[in-house]
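testing teh design pipeline on a random one, pls ignore if ur not involved
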C-alpha cells in the first residue's frame, strides 16, 4: 500500500495523469471530424449491410469449389487445411445480420493512436518510479532485505497492472463518452460485423462485447511492453536501458512498416507488439498464418504470443529481482563508459550555439519530443480522408465560365439558365401529355411499347437537365455574390471552384485547431527548459558573470527558439494542405484571394498563392509568440512549472478561439 501511494497517489502523479487525460480528451474531440470520412457511410454502408449475407455465402461456395479442385485437394497441404478452417470459421457467421448505424465514433476511437502513446507513457512512468531507490542511493539497502526482492517485485507488478488498467478505463471511457456526444446514435448491441472494418471478425460478438475484449487485450499488451522495460532495468542502468527499450520498439515498428504480408517473413508483421498495440483494426481482417503447415488466425496467434509473453516476463522479472543481491557496478555500464570515452577523444568541440542545441535537442529530449508529436499529428491527419463530394453538374460550369466576374458574365449565365428552364418546362409539358396518351392507349388496347420507351428516355433527360439547372444555380449565386462585392468594394474577383480552398481555410476548423494544438504544444515542451536548464544545474549566476553568458548566449537562445518554432509549426500545418490536395486539386493560384467568399474580409489585394505564404507565416509567428512567452517563464520558473503554465495557456487560448468558431 505504501508503494502504491508513493507511485500513484501523490500530487505529482495525479497532476501528470490528470493533464494527460485532459489533453487526450481535447485531441480526441478534435479528431471526431465530420468533414472527414474514416468508414463507410450512407449508401456505401447500406450496400455493405445488404451484401454481407451474400458475401458469407460466396465464401462457402468458393471453399467448396476449391476443395474439389485437384490443385488444392492435397489433404496434407497448408492450402487444404486453410480451406477447411475457413469453411468452419465462416460457418459461425451464418445467420449474422449486420445492422446499419453510426460507426464513425467507434472507428475513430479504435484508430486514435494518441491513446496508445498515453498508455505507454503511463506504464513507462510507473516503471521509472520503481527505480527511485537508485536515484536516492538506497538501491543496495533495499536489495539487502528480504522484502526488498520478491515481495517488493510482486507488489510492483501488481501496481503496474493496476495503473495500466485504470489508464485504459479512464482514457477509453472518456473517449467513448465524447464519441457518443459527437456521433450520437451508435447502438453497441449491434453485431460487430455491422462495422465494415470488422466484417472479417469470426464470432458472434456485439460491438460492446468486442470493445470489452479489445480493452482487455490493450491492458495485457501494454503490460507486456512495460514488463520488458522493467526487466531491462534490472540488467542496465536507467539511461542506457531506456535507449535500448526504444530501439527495441523502433525495431518492432520497422517490422510492421516494412514487412509485406505475402512474404515468407510476413508473420513478423502481425506477431508484433507494435501491431498489437497501435493497429486497432489490423486483426479484424480474416487472415491465417502458416504455422508449420497448419493455419493459425493472426488475431489468435498474436493473442497467444502476447498473453504467453506477459506471463513469461512476469516470471522473469520475479526471478531476476528475487535473485538480484547487492553488488558493484554493472559490467555493461563499464563497457558503455569506455566506448563513450574513446569516442569523446576524437569528437570535435562544438560552438556555443552547438552546445545550446545539444542541451535543447538531446539533454532535454527535444528531438524525441518533436519526433513523437509530429508522428502523432501525422497519424491523426491520415486516420481519415477528405472526400470529394462535388457534383459533376456544378464543376463543369465553373470551367465554362471561369474568369473575372462582370455584368456580361452574369447575364450569360442567367441566359443559359433561362434556356434550360424553358426546355425543362417544355419537356414536363410533353411528358404530362405523353403519360395521358399512354393511359389512353392502355385502355384502348393499343401497342404502348414505343411511347413507353420515349417516356423513359425523356424522364432521364428531364432529370439530367434539372440537375444541370441546380448546378448552374449554385454557380450563378456565387457569381452574383462576387459581383455584389465588386460593386461595393471596387475590387474585381474571379469565378473559381472554391471547394478545396474553403476546406483549407475555413470549413474544416477542427483540423486547423488540432494542428495549432500540436504545434504549440511542441513549442512548449521543447522550449520549457531552454532557460531553466542553467538554473536547475546551479550555473545561472556563473554564466551571468561572464560577458558571453549575457548578451551572446541570450541571442543564440533566441535564434534557436525562432528555428524551433518555425520547424515545429510548418510541417504540422502543411499536413492538411497536402492531404486536401490528394482529394481535391487546388486551382487558380493566381486568382485574387477575395474570389473565395470565406476570406473576402482580408484587407490586402493579393493572390491565393501569396495569401498562403502570409497564412503560414502568421501561424509561424503565433508559435514564435508562444515560444517567447515560454522562454520568459523558463527564465523565472522550473521546467515543470513552465510546462504546466504553457499547457494551460495553450489550452485556454485554443478554447477561446474555438468559441469564436
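output:
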Amino acid at each position: 500500500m505504501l508503494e502504491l501511494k508513493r507511485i500513484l497517489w501523490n500530487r505529482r502523479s495525479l497532476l501528470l495523469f490528470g493533464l494527460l487525460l485532459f489533453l487526450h480528451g481535447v485531441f480526441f474531440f478534435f479528431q471526431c471530424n465530420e468533414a472527414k470520412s474514416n468508414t463507410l457511410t450512407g449508401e456505401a454502408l447500406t450496400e455493405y449491410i445488404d451484401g454481407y449475407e451474400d458475401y458469407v455465402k460466396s465464401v462457402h461456395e468458393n471453399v467448396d469449389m476449391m476443395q474439389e479442385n485437384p490443385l488444392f485437394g492435397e489433404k496434407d497441404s497448408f492450402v487444404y487445411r486453410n480451406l477447411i478452417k475457413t469453411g468452419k470459421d465462416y460457418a459461425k457467421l451464418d445467420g449474422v445480420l449486420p445492422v446499419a448505424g453510426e460507426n464513425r465514433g467507434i472507428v475513430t476511437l479504435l484508430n486514435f493512436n494518441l491513446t496508445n502513446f498515453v498508455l505507454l507513457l503511463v506504464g513507462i512512468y510507473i516503471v521509472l518510479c520503481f527505480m527511485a531507490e537508485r536515484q536516492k542511493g538506497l538501491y543496495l539497502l533495499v536489495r539487502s532485505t528480504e522484502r526488498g526482492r520478491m515481495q517488493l517485485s510482486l507488489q510492483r507488478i501488481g501496481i503496474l497492472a493496476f495503473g495500466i488498467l485504470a489508464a485504459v478505463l479512464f482514457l477509453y471511457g472518456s473517449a467513448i463518452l465524447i464519441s457518443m456526444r459527437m456521433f450520437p446514435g451508435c447502438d453497441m448491441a449491434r453485431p460487430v460485423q455491422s462495422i465494415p472494418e470488422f466484417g472479417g471478425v469470426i464470432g458472434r460478438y456485439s460491438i460492446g462485447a468486442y470493445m470489452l475484449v479489445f480493452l482487455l487485450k490493450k491492458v495485457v499488451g501494454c503490460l507486456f511492453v512495460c514488463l520488458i522495460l522493467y526487466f531491462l532495468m534490472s540488467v542496465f542502468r536507467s539511461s542506457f536501458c531506456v535507449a535500448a527499450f526504444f530501439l527495441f520498439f523502433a525495431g518492432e515498428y520497422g517490422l510492421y512498416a516494412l514487412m509485406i504480408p505475402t512474404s515468407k517473413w510476413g508473420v513478423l508483421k502481425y506477431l508484433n507488439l507494435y501491431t498489437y498495440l497501435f493497429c486497432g483494426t489490423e486483426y479484424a481482417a480474416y487472415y491465417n498464418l502458416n504455422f508449420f503447415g497448419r493455419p493459425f488466425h493472426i488475431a489468435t496467434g498474436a493473442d497467444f504470443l502476447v498473453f504467453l509473453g506477459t506471463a513469461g516476463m512476469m516470471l522473469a522479472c520475479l526471478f531476476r529481482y528475487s535473485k538480484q543481491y547487492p553488488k558493484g557496478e554493472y559490467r555493461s555500464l563499464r563497457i558503455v563508459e569506455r566506448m563513450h570515452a574513446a569516442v569523446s577523444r576524437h569528437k570535435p568541440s562544438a560552438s556555443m550555439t552547438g552546445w545550446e542545441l545539444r542541451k535543447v535537442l538531446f539533454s532535454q529530449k527535444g528531438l524525441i519530443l518533436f519526433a513523437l508529436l509530429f508522428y502523432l499529428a501525422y497519424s491523426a491527419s491520415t486516420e481519415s480522408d477528405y472526400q470529394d463530394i462535388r457534383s459533376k453538374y456544378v464543376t463543369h460550369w465553373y470551367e465554362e465560365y471561369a474568369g473575372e466576374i462582370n455584368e456580361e458574365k452574369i447575364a450569360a449565365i442567367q441566359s443559359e439558365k433561362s434556356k434550360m428552364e424553358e426546355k425543362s418546362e417544355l419537356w414536363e409539358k410533353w411528358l404530362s401529355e405523353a403519360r395521358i396518351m399512354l393511359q389512353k392507349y392502355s385502355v384502348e388496347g393499343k401497342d404502348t411499347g414505343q411511347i413507353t420507351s420515349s417516356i423513359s428516355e425523356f424522364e432521364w433527360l428531364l432529370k439530367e437537365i434539372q440537375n444541370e439547372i441546380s448546378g448552374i444555380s449554385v454557380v450563378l449565386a456565387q457569381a452574383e455574390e462576387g459581383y455584389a462585392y465588386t460593386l461595393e468594394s471596387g475590387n474585381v474577383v474571379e469565378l473559381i471552384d472554391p471547394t478545396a480552398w474553403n476546406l483549407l481555410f475555413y470549413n474544416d476548423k477542427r483540423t486547423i485547431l488540432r494542428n495549432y494544438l500540436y504545434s504549440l504544444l511542441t513549442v512548449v515542451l521543447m522550449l520549457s527548459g531552454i532557460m531553466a536548464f542553467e538554473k536547475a544545474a546551479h550555473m545561472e549566476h556563473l554564466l551571468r558573470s561572464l560577458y558571453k553568458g549575457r548578451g551572446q548566449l541570450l541571442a543564440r537562445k533566441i535564434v534557436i527558439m525562432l528555428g524551433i518554432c518555425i520547424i515545429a509549426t510548418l510541417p504540422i500545418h502543411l499536413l492538411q494542405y497536402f492531404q486536401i490536395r490528394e482529394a481535391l486539386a487546388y486551382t487558380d493560384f493566381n486568382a485574387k484571394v477575395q474570389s473565395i467568399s470565406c476570406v473576402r474580409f482580408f484587407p490586402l489585394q493579393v493572390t491565393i498563392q501569396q495569401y498562403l505564404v502570409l497564412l503560414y507565416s502568421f501561424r509561424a509567428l503565433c508559435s514564435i509568440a508562444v515560444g517567447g512567452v515560454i522562454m520568459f517563464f523558463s527564465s523565472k520558473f522550473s521546467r515543470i512549472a513552465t510546462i504546466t503554465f504553457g499547457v494551460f495557456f495553450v489550452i485556454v487560448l485554443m478554447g477561446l478561439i474555438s468559441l469564436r468558431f
